[in-house]
Amino acid sequence: MLFSRPDGVRVRGDSANRRILPFLMPTRTEAMVQLEQKIDVTEALRYLDRVNSDREERRVSLFHVLLCAMARAQHLRPKMNRFIVGQRLYQRHKLEYSFGVKKKLDDEAILTAVKLPFEPDDTIDTVIDRIDSAISTGRAETKTQSEKEMRLVASLPRFLTRLVVWGLRVLDYFNLMPASMIAVDELYCSMFVANLGSVGLEAPFHHLYNWGTAPLFCSIGKVESTPVVDARGGIVPRELLTIRWSFDERVADGFYCARSLDLFKDFVSNPELLEKEPGEAKCARDPEKAKAISTG
């Protein structure tokens, strides 16, 4: 029981250096590495104009493309879907993303979070309804299960709230946290995503949460038209998207992470690949490089 979890299986046979890291850096915040990524989404925006030209419903958004590209890259790079609990490294059973949703677009509106799964054979078409449904659930007046639980615990006297949170941390450390609580808690996920570009904001560098199991935080900013030097040395306008990542380096080394981000970037730059299942799709610009990245 002390090594079995409902959300993951313990990784064994890793290097001594990798196994000792959770003892040297017990929390995610002290093991956090942050990175800024600039992605040219000019072709992705043209793709959206093209596929949406004859659609009145189920329109594809850049957020759909980004989440699908992230999921595709993480399924191909499974070490990016690991987490640390109790100084142990686990491979997650599912790929699940959480993201914040405002009930309404005003200052006083409540910010909640939703979580949804992604499958290995997902395409851009299969994730549209799932993502839009999750957003609708987050904006609904009905409270989610995790909101009800947090409201209950927060209503207790302070010393009882501290005791309950401490007790849950102990249960989680020894893999005794109820599976039902893990299933509904949005911070027990593969990655937390903040789409600030949807409201015209810049992407900040965000901290990781020491609660839950999310080893990645993705902050998406707004698209900006930027002058870029092309291959001929000329200045051309391109649409650039800034994404800022926070990553728990105890999960995988920086080289593995960087190659995974390369694969994600390639999928965003070539969104047509996301229309096909992974076995049918290869990175259009450099198939050999894509093969090396996805199997490395």
Topology (SSEs and partners):
Layout: E1 8-10, H1 16-24, E2 32-40, H2 42-52, H3 62-76, E3 82-85, E4 88-92, E5 95-102, E6 111-118, H4 124-139, H5 145-154, H6 158-173, H7 179-184, E7 191-195, E8 216-229, E9 235-248, H8 254-269, H9 287-295
Parallel strand pairs: 5-7, 7-8
Antiparallel strand pairs: 1-4, 2-9, 3-4, 5-6, 8-9
Helix pairs in contact: 3-8
Spell out the CATH superfamily.
Answer: Chloramphenicol acetyltransferase-like domain
If strands are numbered along the chain, what order do they take across the biggest sheet?
A: 2-9-8-7-5-6
Number of helices: 9
The residue ranges in which pLDDT falls below 50 over 5 or more consecutive positions are 281-296
CATH topology-level fold name:
Chloramphenicol Acetyltransferase
- Percentage of residues in strands: 15-25%
Q: What is the level-2 CATH architecture name?
A: 2-Layer Sandwich
CATH class: Alpha Beta
Helix content: 25-40%
Instruction: List how many beta strands DSSP finds.
Output: 9
Instruction: Describe the largest sheet.
Output: 6 strands, mixed
**Total domain count:** 1
The ordered string of helix (H) and strand (E) elements is: EHEHHEEEEHHHHEEEHH
Give the termini distance in whole angstroms.
Answer: 32 Å
Q: Overall mean pLDDT score?
A: 89
Shape: globular
Evaluate the radius of gyration: 20 Å
The protein's oligomeric status is single chain
- Find the structural class using helix and strand composition: alpha+beta
